[in-house]
Amino acid sequence: MTTHKWESSTVLVTGATGMVGAWLVKDLLARKARVVVLVHDSDPQSELFRSGDINKVTVVNGTLEDYRTVERAINEQEADTIIHLGAQTIVSTAHHSPLSTFEVNIRGTYNLLEAARVHIDRVKRVVIASSDKAYGYQALLPYTEEMSLAGQHPYEVSKSCADLLSQSYWHTYGLPVAIARCGNIYGGGDLNWSRIVPGTIRSLIEGNAPIIRSDGSYIRDYVYVKDICGAYLLLAENLDNSRVCGYGFNFSNETALSVLDLVAHIQRALSREDLKPTILNKAKGEIKDQYLSAAKAHQVLGWHPTYTLYSGIQETVEWYQDFLKNY
Fold first, then answer.
1. pLDDT band at residue 283, thresholds of 50, 70 and 90?
2. What is the mean predicted confidence (pLDDT) over 268-294?
3. What's the Cα-to-Cα distance from 160 to each of 20, 27, 102, 131, 253, rounded to whole Å?
4. Catalytic residues
């Protein structure tokens, strides 16, 4: 496999104040890359700020929806690599506010792709964060990369569109792009408490019953954030490979779980099996079962997760125990 020399790269990361973005910035700094981040809202509780990494990167202020800002971030900062994580990522928010989700997830993506195309003489690597949600409902599971992108509900559609736009810029303009489709990413630094992992951990630490929005039987992939950061970097490193450039890849630990099973794992990690979940059964606009095959990533990229569910949950719980002491 190709090994890219990150110390010679300037990497633009969108969505750097989010959970995945913050850990990705850590990885890039450890590899001695020059990192540029596009930041809309500053959140002092974000891991990017709490860790002090914000002081080690170049910050461009603005939004993905503004093309001039995105183009400036690429051109003036001379970015040769782009890892596009910026998005509205909450399914329930997309259900209630589809327009704002479409603006960020679709317009934001084509703005970035177009700005990269304009500066294709400099931009050598683009990685787009898609999702398993881009596949929409499929009669057979697990999802494989040969399946069509068929989102129906707002969040799914936004990811299907962003994914297809990315492929279009490869097929039409030769933009060196690859797409990562992941299941539910969890880990320390996720401050969206409506999500099942951080919400459950906080409830249990505070001595409250965890809240489940669905009926608890929904099946999902859960993959640890550090494994996914490694996957994004591996994709970028291999964009000179004709089997990688222009294609989408699934990343999963291939251990599908129900929501109730996941909550039980977290309860065991915190020794709080006594707090039985409160099941609301109010989930809307969500496909019941979604999980991925990562066989292509294994075969083409040599990627394998390094964290089990047990080790990932343990490390995540420890992060939140430390964080919530001063929250």
1. confident
2. 93
3. 20, 28, 11, 8, 22
4. 155
Q: In 3D, which of 131, 122, 133 has the Cα closest to residue 288?
A: 133
Cβ–Cβ under 8 Å, residues 125 and 11: no
What's the pLDDT tens digit per position in 122-147?
999 999 999 999 999 999 999 999 99
d(CA 299, CA 238): 13
**Angstrom distance (rounded) from CA 265 to CA 194:** 18
Percent of the chain with pLDDT over 90: 94
Q: Could you check whether the bond before residue 142 is cis, i.e. omega within 30 degrees of 0?
A: yes
Fold entry, domain 8-185+224-253+292-303: Rossmann fold (3.40.50)
pTM summary value: 0.96
Q: What ranges do the domains of the chain cover?
A: 8-185+224-253+292-303
Q: Which residue has the tokens 């099973």?
A: 261
